[in-house]
Structure of Pyrimidine-specific ribonucleoside hydrolase:
Amino acid sequence: MTPLIIDTDPGIDDAFAIALAAASPEVDLLAVTTVFGNVALSHTTANALRLLALCGRPDVPVAAGADRPLVHPTVHRASTVHGNDGLSGAADTLPAAAHDVDGRHAVELMADLLRQATEPVTIAPIGPLTNVALLLAVHPELKPKIGRIVAMGGGAKGGNTTAAAEFNVWSDPEAAHRVLAEEDVPTVLVPLDLTHRCAVDAAWLDRLAAGGAVAKGLSALTPSYRETYRRVLGVDGMVLHDAIALAEAISPGILRTTACPIEVDCSHGPGRGATIIDQRGYVESPRRLIDVAFEADTAELGEFVLSRILG
């Protein structure tokens, strides 16, 4: 089994990602760490605890991390998409937390787990990259313990929060620049370009609603999220951004990647938070390359996620 840490800001698509990891025998889910993002840190942490209770995983520690970006405060939340509590106003329909928050800061819990690890650990940041940037800055000696970072974020063709920027990167561009452009840990980036093409349809959601307790619990979170995608993208379904990244963390190679250099726009103009993904395909690049997932068998991917959640 691959040791796995999820860093997250739940979030409805985060909920599916956590459930997918909790049900996958290929990974040993070491911890779930939380960050500000879709909603405030207090909500993302409470949501992570409730989701692990839904999945029957009180063995997985939860630690709270950054409650704001590295440098500049951000007031925007995704509550118009995820609801005021991050779970469409339905967080209270989930089981109560079955365990308490770990007393350590998320960065220190990750550091402790990396020190103890006997094999490379995959870290899957599916919210703003603040906690992971702090981990790499404060504990650079632990970088060899990280097998891969598999992050959801960015977009080659534009964003979803602004015309240029995707939400996770826009929430903390300086952190994203450090993780994606400056560090040397092997990294896979799963951008909007792919996740939007992996939207699940009404039939998929009907199968989810007919499933067991975990599936039904997740299904109860989806109606307003689904309506958002009907209104914004014109699809009768929804996009599981973060679960697509977790599929790659669990099953390496399920997404097809291209090695590209990346820059993150940290200016204060209309391009702030944009990911500039260089796809010119030069044989040699003076800049660091990361693996960007642009292609996948979308039907296979949807079935992979659903079959795990249904058990």
